[in-house]
Amino acid sequence: MSEMGLETEINDHSIKRLVDHFYGKVIEDDLLGPVFRNAIGESLDDWGDHLATMYRFWSSVMLTTGRYKGNPVKAHMELVDQVEPHFFEHWLTLWTEASEEVFVPDLAIAFQKKAKSIAQSLSFMMFERFMPDTLSARPA
Question: Which of 6, 55, 57, 79 is 20 to 30 A from 17, comparing alpha carbons?
Answer without folding.
Answer: 79
